[in-house]
């Protein structure tokens, strides 16, 4: 997914002296408080973390209750959706005016009617709401569909994505993958055909039975020998 990235960050966690005996636990608790929240300094939502401590030294901050700062490096996985990026999510609700999606199990996404391309037509099939492609009826969007869509905007505070199905490379992931496989198979077939050399077909009028060809060659050899003897 385009909106996921790994990064390494140098962090400092300031702890109360009473936590000096369990520094590691205290650091992990502080890191846990960053999860599933947008961090401006990191420009993304922290999904996972993996700290690495290279020193057991800490910097003491002066004060009535002097805190101490623990420095470490952390490998972080961030969610940072930007406009025109492609996201995948599971459709949880389909309506005539919108499609609702959950991304990565925590972020909500919304696609309004004006952002659904005209190729998709809203219908109710067997009591269930569904969008069906006019160009291929097998391409359907319903509750439970894994949907690939484009990002229009991202609300950092609400963790809410406004999406779009206008680009032609968006839609049901299952349908898109099947089309990609079919296209690749067709490309391989065309390439193999183009690499084959054409078979040369001889005209039937020019074909001579092999036995007659041998007789003709033997006759020519005998006539040459007779001429050589005569000379």
Automatic annotation (TrEMBL):
CC annotations in GO: RNA polymerase I complex
Function (record text): DNA-dependent RNA polymerase which catalyzes the transcription of DNA into RNA using the four ribonucleoside triphosphates as substrates.
Domain of life: Eukaryota
Cellular localization per UniProt: Nucleus
Primary location group: nucleus
GO biological process: DNA-templated transcription initiation; transcription elongation by RNA polymerase I
The gene coding this protein: LOC107801865
Taxonomic source organism: Nicotiana tabacum
Segments traversing the membrane: none
Key words, A-Z: DNA-directed RNA polymerase, Nucleus, Transcription
Protein name according to UniProt: DNA-directed RNA polymerase subunit
InterPro entries (alphabetical): RNA_pol_Rpb7-like_N_sf, Rpb7-like
